[in-house]
Amino acid sequence: MEDILRALSEVLKTFELGESEIKIYSLLQRESLTPRQIAKALGLSERIVREKLKHLLELGLVERTLVNRGWLGYVYRAKAPREALQEIFKRIESTLKALEKESKMKLKN
Fold first, then answer.
1. Which residue of 47, 52, 67, 106 sits 20 to 30 Å from the alpha carbon of 98, by its own alpha carbon?
2. How far from each other are the two terminal CA atoms of the chain, in whole angstroms?
3. Angle between helix 81-108 and helix 2-13 axes, rounded to 10 deg
4. pLDDT score of 32
């Protein structure tokens, strides 16, 4: 049981969002933007914005579209809050199922 709680705690920690990530998500709810546009709007370095976008992508809170505007790049947009929450619940459910399966196997041995 402790293993399950520890693993679930680790999964939930991945959803901790910093102030910059919250600002980026909020900005992207209003319009789709490039990392450079986000950096300029929020006064952050483009490198930091790219790191935060990577985390938001991994969490399923934002999505990106490849664009060609004389250069190849991505435009990011926030998923709707309901859609984002569904992604989070799916990840938690998947983790719980894996942990349940693992604990059943341990009990059999």
1. 52
2. 16
3. 150
4. 96
The CATH class of the 2-108 domain is mainly alpha
The two tokens of residue 57 are: 């992508």
Residue 48 — left, alpha, or beta (φ > 0 → left; ψ -120 to 50 → alpha)? Answer: alpha
Maximum Cα–Cα distance across the chain: 60
Strand, coil or helix: what is 32?
coil
pTM for this predicted structure: 0.72
pLDDT confidence band for 8 (50 / 70 / 90): low
Separation in Å, CA 65 to CA 18, 34, 40, 72, 74: 24, 10, 20, 10, 5
